[in-house]
Amino acid sequence: MWFMILDRRCRRQGTQFFFSGLLVLVVIIFGSFLGQAAAASSPDPTEQFRPFLQKVTDVLADPTLKTVPKKEQSQRVINVVRERFDFREMSKRVLGQHWRSLNTQEQAQFEQLFTELLQYAYVGKIDEYTGQQVEFTQQRIKGDRAEVQTLLVDANKSIPISYILILRGTQWMAYDVVVEGVSLVRNYMEQFKEILLKDGYPGLVKQIENKISQLEQQQKQS
């Protein structure tokens, strides 16, 4: 008699295990399907970045660009760059934990200063563009983050450049650029960290303002 009871228990448990396993399998498959559907519905970062980088190179290749003053040249380029770069996110990341200690006005001030610094330090080097082309190699997506890998190609060499992106609504926005393995954000973050430890936030602002003035004077003299 006991083996009949045991047999019924085993069959009942086996049935429970079967349906439990089936439920888990359905959840896994359905969850995987939803994940794939969500990924499929997300915009493609490369397809969004391709026309943007083409627009940047078109501005740089415009023969009228070098007929205007340096400040206007860099302003034309930065106006295009703003379309696909999240300077607030960049500013937040270069300051790290110090960003949270700033009030809204200070955050806006720092974003403006940091954007202006980038404009003079990098966008200002327009003369270095000599017709290089951009080749897209691959991309990686993880949730609301993505990386678009490219090569900047000219006759002599190819430079690997990766754009680190964050999804804002339906738009992929860049918040970091990695050139030959060197992160722009991390580079500035390490520099700013030392200044913040030594001179605090007011000291950092003062040094950035001085650097902008210095770069501005260099542009006027060139």
Automatic annotation (TrEMBL):
InterPro entries: MlaC/ttg2D. It comes from the Bacteria. It holds the Pfam family MlaC. Coiled coil: none annotated. This is Toluene tolerance family protein. The lineage of its organism: Bacteria, Pseudomonadati, Thermodesulfobacteriota, Desulfobulbia, Desulfobulbales.
